[in-house]
Structures are given as structure tokens and as C-alpha cells.
Amino acid sequence: MRRTLELGQRVELQSRDPHCHDISLGLYHQESEGGSVYVIHTYSSHPDGGLRIEAICRGLIEFAGMLVVSRDPQLLAFPCGQRHEKAVRRSFLELCKLSNSEIGGFLPLVRPDKKAECDLTVEVNGPGRYRITAAEDGEKGKRRCQAVARGFSKLCEMDVSASDLSMVSFDCGHEHDRLMGALFFRAQNVRSAFKEDELAASRGTLAAPGNQDGNA
Ligand SMILES: [Zn+2]
Questions:
Q1: 152 CA distance to ligand 1 centroid (A)?
Q2: pTM > 0.70
Q3: Is the Cβ–Cβ distance between 76 and 57 less than 8 Å?
Q4: 66: CA distance to ligand 1 center in Å?
Q5: CA of 77 to the centre of ligand 1 (A)
Q6: 204 Cβ partners below 8 Å, 6+ apart?
Q7: C-alpha pair distances (Å), 153 with each of 10, 12, 55, 114, 129
Q8: Mean per-residue pLDDT for 147-161?
């Protein structure tokens, strides 16, 4: 069924899923009439593969705020129809770290921040626009709000406001509250997210069949 469908372009790969028998999972992007659509696919014939894909799709819906866009429950898109590719890729990779039973629900828009020494909040400031605020006044909190805003701009391709460096917005002008909650902890430490990507990429390269000499 799925195998006969056009998958589109692969934009992310989980080369070995530790929660599903080390199968590989690909995230594919397609442009449709209604906008950007994503689908997750595995070439593995392992019987648990289907359930795993279902769980990650459920995660993308609940955790990142995506929607099922057709009769096929595995074709997902954002309500705005925009691509937001980096954000989808990041959400997908985060979900691959969780077991099926751990996937579900969404994350809050308030989080403690060690460096700010207080809670930070992602406040809705208009359609698709968010402001990061600190529970306590002071230089530390202010700096951290701006750092988290920069983190969101890198992770989700958002624009930082020129007049307020703690404000970020999606150019679609659409609400993405769940996505902001989902990637808030990543925006607090973008460097560690990128470091993990490098590690995963190097592991993927070394593990690739036909490349066993490690000469990547
Ligand atoms: Zn959008």
C-alpha cells in the first residue's frame, strides 16, 4: 500500500530506531494542492513498524500540532499548510527518542531555566507571534529570553523582531502553540541539539551498509 505511494523527498532519517528493533524511519516531504505534507515511512518489513509509525504520527499531532490532512491517517501537515521543515524534522527526531508508550500529550509553555535562575514563559503575542518572558526582572533573565528567542529562530526558522529581541514570529502568521511548547527545551539549549545531530549523523554514516571501513 504505502510502498506504491509516491513518498516525496526524504528530509530526515532515523537510521536505527532504538525503540523499534533498530529499523530505519524516514520523514518525507511532498507539496500538495493544499500545501506541504509529510509522511513517515520505513522500508523495514518488521511487523512492529506500522505501530511505530502510528505512534510517531500521533506524536506529531499532539506534540507538534500537526493535522491529518486526508483519508490517509499518515499524511500530516500543519494547519497553516506551510512547510516549516526544520521544525518538523526536529519534532520527528525528538519523538524517535521516545518509546510508543511515552509518546502523547503536549509540553507546557512555561519552563524553569537554570541560567536565568527563574521560569521562562513563551507568551502568545499575536497570530504566529511569541514573546519569551522571564518570571524575574534583571539582566540574566532578559539575556536568556533573547537567547531562547534566537534558539527558536534557528530551530523553527522564525524571525526575531528587530525592535524586541525576545520576540519571534512565524511568517505564516498562524498559531503554533504546541510546536512552541514541544521545542521550548531545545530552544533553551540549541547547541546541545546540534551536537546530537552531528553525533547521530556520524553514527548513521558508520552504520551504513557498504561503508564498513569507516572511511566516511
Ligand atoms: Zn505555520
A1: 14
A2: yes
A3: yes
A4: 10
A5: 10
A6: 13, 15, 16
A7: 23, 19, 28, 21, 12
A8: 97
